[in-house]
## 1
Amino acid sequence: MAERPEDLNLPNAVITRIIKEALPDGVNISKEARSAISRAASVFVLYATSCANNFAMKGKRKTLNAGDVLSAMEEMEFQRFTGPLKESLEAYRREQKGKRGASELKKKDKDQKEDSEDPDKNREEEEEEERMEEEEPNEEEEEEEEEVDS
């Protein structure tokens, strides 16, 4: 685990970017305020993780899942965040599904392109594999030959 309590803090650059996105243009924030928000965010993440871990342990699992986090949010009395969190989770899942689908299509297109470029190559490889299998005597035939020889 962490050697020092500071190791558990979220990265300052990430916190600063989130703060800037949340505040209107022209509003500045002091270094102390940024540090306080960073600590508060870190404590929140650790508490939410601990609560989610309890739900995973009740389910006799070692892996936290989205359901554990949503249940933890409700237990921590942050129900008003579960709706937006579910929406974000669904958007993330759709994005991942789209990426997987796109990569599968690319692979399929590539395979079809390779097949169409040299269809004889695949046939030759298959025929070579069949010849190799025919040439290799199987174990049963070898045992029978040994028994006959004895």
Note: Helices lie at 12-22, 31-58, 66-75, 79-117, 119-135, 139-149.
## 2
Amino acid sequence: MTLVIAISSFSAYKEKMKELSLLSLICSCFHTQPHPNTIYQYGDMEVKQLDKRASGQSFEVILKSPSDLSPESPILSSPPKKKDLSLEELQRRLEAAEERRKTQEAQVLKQLAEKREHEREVLHKALEENNNFSRLAEEKLNYKMELSREIREAHLAALRERLREKELHAAEVRRNKEQREEISG
């Protein structure tokens, strides 16, 4: 049991050592009892040790501003300053922006006109196809009605012909009957 506790405390110590910064490790090696508010200077930064905590040591790292740097340290480049614009330059930029706005507006209007024209073409084509379909459907219907009328007329003509033939046959049968009655009687 004590071995397990010793191993777990050793592994916790090992993890803690990994977490400690190199600076705190070096400081703790040189000064086992640091003085409060001790300030260490390293180039353009200051390291100030804070009160010792129960969980370990704590430090405050203060970076110096570029103006506080010594001449030996490399000079950091500052962002370029904006130059003051003259009235003519501002006017020229405003005119260029207005021209860009007008150009963009003209392009949008042109695109809208092209889209509208395309919609008109599509609508015209749809109407034309609809008219063609209606015309073809009407022609087809007229053809079927004409064909139906011709078939009906042909059928009626055939019925009339059969009726006429029946009447002729009936007339012939009557005549034959009358002739037989005259001969017999």
Note: Confidence is low (pLDDT under 50) at residues 1-6.
## 3
Amino acid sequence: MALWELSSLEKYLGLKKPNKYSTQGDKKVPVLQNNNGPPLVGLVTLACHLVKEAKRLELLGDSAENRAVVQQWLEYRVTKLNNCTKDNIKTILKDLNLYLQDKVYLAENQFTLADILLYYGIQPIIVDLAIQEQEQYVNVTRWFDHIQHYPGIRRHLSPVVVLRNRIYSSRHH
């Protein structure tokens, strides 16, 4: 999965010469053989490298606080989301839903690399959610829909249909 993410990120960033990646280990950790030194290993390491190569540093955060938030969510992606089991999915969605309740993007009001990689990581989960489940996680669904329509991000992924109005009222009849 990580290899197509890196390829999609390269295209989004407008990098002209695509890199050749390999993988290592059971978990297929992406590796980039660097001409100038040792290989670069890991999705986050490679994604940050590509952002710097494209001179798009704003995607890493525009302040010290935002850079820390971006790094936190990138870490979350590889430690929690990449290794999540079916049992963990609801907890991840609940936590993310709570976090996003007053935010447009993961780093407050700035679109960053964290939004891109979390979108790619959570897309298979969102695809499998029923409409009623999407409603339970309305902030995640709103954020996801916004990111999937961000120019150049979705690439080859099929769009996920998200209803913009709630089916059920919150009142009990």
Note: The two ends are 45 Å apart (CA to CA).
## 4
Amino acid sequence: MAEKIAAVESLLSCFVCSETFRDPVTLSCSHSFCSSCLQKFWEQTKNKNCPICKRRSSSDYPPVNFALKELADSFAGRQKPESSERMKETKEEVVCDKHPEETKLFCEDEQRAVCPVCEFSLHQTHKVVPVEQAVRDLKEQLRSDLKSLQDKRDKYKQVEDTYNEMSQHVKKQLLSTETQIRAEFNKLHQFLKEEEESRLAALREEEEQKGKTLSREMKRIQQQMSSLSDSISAVEEELQKQQVSFLSSYKDTQSRARAQSSLSDPQLVSGALIDVAKHLGNLSFRVWEKMKDKVHFSPVILDPNTANGWLDLSDDLTSVRHGNTWQKLPDNPERYTKYSELLGSEGFSSGKHSWEVEVGDLLWIVGLAKESAEMYAEVASPKYGYWCLSHRDGKYTNSDGKTVTVQKSLQRIRVQLDYDRGEVSFYNSEDMTHIYTHRDTFTEKLLPYFYVGESDIKVCQSEIWLLTSE
């Protein structure tokens, strides 16, 4: 029996102080210590390692192991007898020392239990009810308060979950956007590499042509020099002859010499050097001009952070389609979650602007929305902050819900905003025929707006007007 007690005592003893546990805590390595002993040990060693296995603790303040605490307290005789606790509770329920019987009345005005013998006369003008009723009513109120707290906690938990989703989504956005940035720059690098090779090839080709020209001219000069050298040698030889021999042969030599002397002097050809200015002059500008033909500008960039989960955006964020699968996206405040809608990434607060949109034959809405537009509105109308052109079942309607007539089915629409004059206009881009203009007073930023109902929408390249209002 003594051995068993000793074994239990060993299991319930702290490794640091060798005493029975007081407020024991258990580390992730499963070793337990008195809470105060562990903290003192960590202060002395200046680390958070387990005193036994030296493994680092995952928590700076590990929670108390209440099961182990109850067992240790019981073993050490530190628990209070149940009868004492019960007596204390019973004593607390006694309201009056003179009349120790259990109280049965509760004063709602003073919000306390009262003695029915010596205090009753003091509460005749108060509202006094039986304790059971007061407890029932107050517990009901407390349950209501508890429900309110639980609901509030659930809302905080919901927001916490959304932030967790947003955190994970941000990491995905980082990887995806980084990949696309690298891809775009790789295209630019490839273009510059090819342009560099082309420019160097043109330089080498010119060098080869100029080299051939110089070689040809040098060969001709060398031939002339050789002929002149032969004539010089012949004249020098003629001058060395005896008189009779000289007189019989000098005439031919003299004619040959005079014929070569009458030739024009040699001239250097122009343009024999490489045209360095042609290759280097405004090089960066000319490459940039050529690069402009390789890149495209879109006046409106779609904002993926506002896109509904049914929508699929292109990598360059200039086109969108209604997908077949729902994408799990964070429920951030900017996102349209009820309908398949999205906004442009930048808005307008002044001036004139225009862009063109390619649309399909199914349900779509294009136009503008103010920054504070009602996101769950049933209708895209000015009442809710929208100025749009809509298409459904071959019918076109304006912002006021009225039908507008078009000569033929619209495939490409120009949206035109004159913010200062308060005008939003729509045109058929194919022949620039006017569809309709909505006039209003704008007081806040307007953003391009799109509703995509199982139809593709693409923002087309168009000029952005940088004109002041008339």
Note: Residues 373 and 385 are 5 Å apart (CA to CA).
